[in-house]
Amino acid sequence: MRHRIGAALTGLAVAGTALLATAGTAGSHGYTDSPISRQRLCADGTVADCGEIRWEPQSVEGPKGFPAAGPADGRICAGGNSRFAQLDDPRGGAWPTTRLSSGQNHTFRWRFTAPHATTDFTYYITRDGWNPGRPLTRAALDAQPFLTVPYHGQRPPGTLSHSGTLPSKTGRHLILAVWTIADTPNAFYACSDVHF
């Protein structure tokens, strides 16, 4: 009897280790933490009721080609992934914001758990007069990104920072960061609520 219990426990331990090994990396990739993204706010517990994104802030992956392609309007912050729909919920415009200075230089920072060959990083911002109480749409964004950082197929390190000039804005806005992967059909999306 003791031998059977020991064998069963060993089998469970092996199965559990295999499950953890595959679950931790299957959807692992990257997110922004400067300015802090919605997924990071969920992961660190600043924002509650986030669902699965709390354990997978790096997994907001969706089709690339934004803005011509990519996630549908209203599903952009979650990368079109229904598992992370809480990121698209505007929460009445009450997501915590990062304070930024209009027209100033800012250092954007990404954290990666599985770096990929990268085409570029692009940053969009909402138009003046956008409604923070509604899910993000393409029409709510300025037509052109305010910053594009080419990466020429390289793989980024565990943490990557790059600087750019913020647009001239006032009040509450949302920055959409898009990390476009060179060797897959996907990109990663991160929405950061900011206040100028």
UniProtKB/TrEMBL annotation:
It holds the Pfam family LPMO_10. CDD domains: LPMO_AA10 (cd21177). The keyword Cytoplasm does not apply. Residues 1-23 form the signal peptide. Residues 29-194 form the Chitin-binding type-4 domain. The keyword Signal applies. Keywords: Signal. This is Chitin-binding protein. It comes from Streptomyces tirandamycinicus.
